[in-house]
């Protein structure tokens, strides 16, 4: 019986949960050149969100992510990183759907590769000390009371 039960717990958990979030800098050179580094947000809860404009679940999730950011800012900072290759598709998407969000395009996909994130959307919740507390795979309702309460407790 002991062997059967112990075989169920393989000790696995998502990459980086409980560890300091890997730092990175993304520079988007199309349009207005801009550079963003994760370490700029230390001291705030960060919702590190990997997405793409061609991703239907990302499109579905975006309104609640934007609403959550507006409600919880400045205590919670969303850093939305697009992996779009097409700069025009990216620009159209953010103009239409992500007004007021901090988003940057990483067409080289260096930041999401660092986090082993290749299915979108994928999100990492990082606490004020820079430690990854959760990894969320797939779309969620960011306006739910449970999510808001969790983020504000960090």
Question: Which descriptors would you attach to this protein?
Answer:
154 residues, alpha/beta, 5-stranded mixed beta sheet, two-stranded antiparallel ribbon, 5 helices, 7 strands, globular, disordered N terminus
Sequence-ordered SSE layout with sheet pairings:
Elements: H1 2-8, E1 25-28, E2 34-37, E3 45-51, H2 56-72, E4 76-82, H3 87-97, E5 103-105, H4 110-114, E6 122-126, E7 132-137, H5 145-153
Parallel strand pairs: 3-4, 4-5
Antiparallel strand pairs: 1-2, 3-6, 6-7
Descriptive overview:
This protein has helices spanning 2-8, 56-72, 87-97, 110-114, 145-153, and strands at residues 25-28, 34-37, 45-51, 76-82, 103-105, 122-126, 132-137. The protein is α/β, with parallel strands linked by helices and 154 residues long. It starts with a helix and ends with a helix.
Summarize this structure briefly:
It is built from 5 helices and 7 strands, in the order H-E-E-E-H-E-H-E-H-E-E-H.
Beta-strand content bin: 15-25%
Structural class: alpha/beta
Largest sheet: 5 strands, mixed
**Cα-to-Cα separation, first versus last residue:** 39 Å
User: Low-confidence parts, pLDDT < 50 over ≥5 residues?
Assistant: 1-12
Q: Write out the strand line-up for the largest beta sheet, numbering strands in chain order.
A: 5-4-3-6-7
Number of helices: 5
Q: What overall geometry do the principal axes of the alpha carbons give?
A: globular
Helix content: 25-40%
Element order: H for helix, E for strand: HEEEHEHEHEEH
User: Tally of extended strands?
Assistant: 7
